[in-house]
Description:
The complex is a heterodimer.
Chain A: E1 4-8, E2 11-18, E3 21-24, H1 31-39, E4 63-67, E5 74-78, E6 89-91, H2 95-109, H3 126-134, E7 152-153, E8 159-162, H4 171-180, E9 185-188, E10 195-198, H5 214-218, E11 224-226, E12 237-242, E13 251-257, E14 260-265, H6 279-283, E15 298-301, E16 304-307, H7 310-327, E17 333-337, H8 343-357, E18 362-364, H9 371-380, E19 398-402, H10 406-409, H11 411-422, E20 427-430, E21 443-445, H12 452-465, H13 471-477, E22 478-479, H14 481-490, H15 493-500, H16 504-516, E23 520-524, H17 526-529, H18 534-547, E24 557-560, H19 567-572, H20 589-599, H21 611-619, E25 625-629, H22 633-636, H23 640-648, E26 652-657, E27 669-672, E28 681-684, E29 689-693, H24 706-716, H25 726-736, E30 753-754, E31 777-778, H26 788-793, E32 799-803, H27 821-824, E33 829-832, H28 834-839, E34 847-851, E35 856-863, E36 871-874, E37 903-909
Parallel strand pairs in A: 2-6, 17-18, 17-25, 19-20, 19-23, 20-21, 22-31, 23-24, 25-26, 26-27, 32-36, 33-35
Antiparallel strand pairs in A: 1-2, 2-3, 4-5, 4-6, 7-8, 8-11, 9-10, 12-13, 13-14, 15-16, 15-27, 28-29, 29-30, 32-37, 33-36, 34-35, 34-37
Chain B: H1 3-6, H2 25-35, H3 47-57, H4 64-74, H5 78-87, E1 99-104, H6 107-111, H7 114-125, E2 138-143, E3 155-157, E4 160-162, H8 167-178, H9 191-194
Parallel strand pairs in B: 1-2
Antiparallel strand pairs in B: 1-3, 3-4
Helix pairs in contact in B: 3-4, 4-5
Amino acid sequence: xxxxxxxxPKQEIKLAYIDxxxxxxKDGETILSFVKRYKGKKAVPTLCDAPNLDPFGxxxxxxxxxxxxxxxxxxxxxxxxxPVMPGSFIYPDSDRVQKLRKNIVELVLTDHPLDCLxxxxxxxxxxxxxxxRVGVRDVRYPAGKNHLDRKKDLSHPYMTSDFSKCIxxxxxxxxxxxxxxxxxxxxxxxxxxSHIVKGQETTFNLSDCVSCGACAQACPTSAISDxxxxxxxxxxxxxxxxxxxxxxxxxxxxxxxxxIIKSIQAPYDAEVNTGHTCLKGRFAFSxxxxxxxxxxxxxxxxxxxxxxxxxxxxxxxAKELTRIxxxxxxxxxAGISSARCTNEENYLMQKFIRAVxxxxxxxxxxxxxxxxxxxxxxxxxxxGAATNSIVDLKVTDCIMVIGANxxxxxxxxxxxxxxxxxxxxxxxxxxxxKIELAxxxxxxxxxxxxxxxxxxxxxxxxxxxxxxxxxxxIAARTEGYEAFRKNILKLDMNEMERITGVDRELVKKAxxxxxxxxxxxxxxxxxxxxxSQGSFTVMQIADLALITGNIGRHGVGVNxxxxxxxxxxxxxxxxxxxQGAGYYSVSDSLNHEVYENFYQAKLPMHKGYKIPEMxxxxxxxxxxxxxxxxxxxxxxxxxxxKVVAALNNLELFVVQELFMTETAKLATVILPGASFxxxxxxxxxxxxxxxxxxxxxxxxxxxxxxxxxxxxxxxxMGYAQPDYxxxxxxxxxxxxxxxxxxxxxxxxxxxxxxxxxxxxxKGTQVxxxxxxxxxxxxxxxxxxxxxxxxxxxxxxxxxxxxxxxELEHYNCGAMTRRTKNVLINTEDVLxxxxxxxxxxxxxxxxxxxxxxxxxxxxxxxxxxxxxxPGILSSTFHFPEVMLNNITSDVHDSEAMCPEYKVVACxxxxxKGKYKEKV
Amino acid sequence: MNETDKNNISxxxxxxxxxxxxxxxxxxxxVKSIIKRYPEGKQKSALLxxxxxxxxxxxxxxxxxxxxxxxxxxxxxxIEVYEVAxxxxxxxxxxxxxxxxxxxxxxxxxxRGAEDIIHHIEKKLNIKAGETTPDGKFTLKTVECLGSCxxxxxxxxxxxxxxxxxxxxVDSLLDTWKNSDKHSTYLDTNTFRKx
Lengths: 918, 195
């Protein structure tokens, strides 16, 4: 029989038969996916198969009959992991396989409790469904030995297990290995004694589990679940929205009953996270209705907050703002928008500050994280955003991760990077700390903090020395290369080796690995930007992509891992003092006219204050009022003493917040905003993906959606702005921001669109495929310069402390500290190597006083090999420590991003008595 | 002891040391030479022989710290060690007696009186199969076919087979071990040292 249809020469269609009817095969397809594609998702029952895991073939429930000829002799094969063979005849539901499946399920049921009515997953259990489907009415086997007496594990704040319900399908083990890459779960024993273990027969709580919940979501029964019973069907509805904890932009499916959030799962059809998310996204939601939420506007009178009505608060603010504007001028007022808020809210905030107040004093927290990325990439490529998408990890040949601790700060992307490194392909980690990814990487360049520029210059040197530049790409698409090359070749590698503290041979190997890979992707984080040479480092990373031709294709590019969920969006929307919505310079007269016409308002043409400049201006009495949305600048901006002094010097300080943060405590007026569960809008993730955020629950009584607060005050101050709705604001944005041209609220779909989105609504996965916005890519050479902090204070304060993040907490922790995450990660700790600890007689767990030229803090020591001698590291998630008392406000020379990563300090053992209160 | 408990790992640490526990230099050299038999990056292949060496070196059983050490030496995840160690019955995850008696109970031996042999030992040592004598001298286990059907009934102590058993033979065997200070091990004849 001929099993191919010849259409044109060389174009053949491969066929296989389902119940004797021919269907076309896709390359590399399994029998299961083939049958499902034509006969529907439920055509073949499965148990061990899962949408985000590799085929496994352990349960055999998906068995089908396969023959080589029509109605010929059949062989039973597990369809999930058997490739479909052209010309084969598949009988997915023959009497034989029906009997076989029934028998398999019966055997499973001999060792499974039949307590379905009281089980969490009642009516949402895959075993139950399969048993119903194959028609089990009775178990023919006698009751024998079983595992029904296995004990539950309720030790963990989130994860639970009840292995009496385990069917040994391995889905949890595979999720732990293939999705998260944590290797906590496995199958121990054999035969009847086979059983799932966490670590070496320990509990979730004592194992290395990072509570991502991938195993719980993968489990077809309730053998592994979570305390929120996320697999139960008690909810009235499920709302799909976007996580607010980081720039990855995970899709979440939130189950709600009676206006209360019950649990969260990760949808499998999300391109960003494909059924995965981290413990913050999945479990850390209980902050939203925490008793400490601020539920009414508060006005501070005589140093005490008094409750006020919204009208009262608005009147007070409008009157004060008008007074300050009249008495001192618009430039005495400044706003800081929130990268946690939606694009629409950010757009409105900058519009309010520019069109209603009349100043360009608008900034966002991008200033303290990725402003150097925006600046550096604009200088080299013309566009300050990730060039590629995370999905490109599937096709790249090499990754370079610089100053980004993704497994803690961007867990879902971190897990993908880890999987890449585990695949054995070359992976380079450049980080002063032995981060988790470094354990899996091919090369870990453990440089001294603050020497990125020197290290990357070494990489250029070795690439040029080995002749690995992409000469065609350089000639066609770049400029400035000759001068750049000359400068690089002048460098003394011995000197660079001394500065960075990294063996030149290791750097050479890494450089050659990056340059010789057909496709190489780079990722960077705050370990690049939060330095005095942050912008320069970003330019170098961009130039590394240029010199090797790693731009404009899938699987290459420069990919900043953006911190906040919408920090990309905050900048896109114009929450920057020098550029308006869509990145047009406010000082350019043509743009200025466009903006004035669009906003129907007089706008200033001079640049406004960046965040650090706002603090300086306040201390110099050049700023009288500030408005901050959802950012705890007092806890998270560097040099706390100075920040607090600046905020205290204001006449009016308006804060929109969920909680009484360190910043809110200093406010004149607090306006209770709403969390992301309580609003709709769009977030733009680190790969320029504009995704729809849907309101899950109504704003808590007394609070308001932040965008509506801005609209209210705009109207109060005489500017007519329609009520906040993502649809109408997005429409307004699409008229002024060119790369949002085709973005429509109703057309975002489940996976959003990556900007630029053209008029027809088509998004863009890869930037710079043909050319750069600025014409040609620019090579910009920069010399290494020692941080001013170390030049000024290095002698007196010989240690370097660098700040980092922990998985369980998010920045100031205002949200995560109000969830059970605090039971997992209880306090900030100081990472210190054994050698340094011994020098100061510090034991693991001792309190250590860390003192810098700005102040001192007490923090608990954790002795580790993650840091080298002379280097310390700590987080600033907890106000009890207030680590930013010691950080410096030295900042990036170009973008003014503070240098959180290099702080000179001394250490001594303390008894915890030096804790400073702000 | 029920079936599920049997493989449950013991949290006890071996008497030879906790925490900083390490292979002796000699064993370490041996492990390295075993690793070299496999292609670079495939050092996990050396897991089974390394576990045997570990069990022989650390009192006849594999504690968590011992398995962690093996994982460290082979640069694999601890769980990869555990899943293998718990799969094979020759690895003990709990401390047992110095002398581990493994009596075959499969068909041929059973037909030739293995049950009587087992009962005899149980009575003599005053323990049940699967248990250890209070003095820590003997552990009695029943095992499946050891491939010595022609000489049934038989039992194994360490690497040694004891065949065509009679009650007298068993008695003298027990007496010998009772007066010995040795640990039974599968590596009596320096299996890996032959290389």
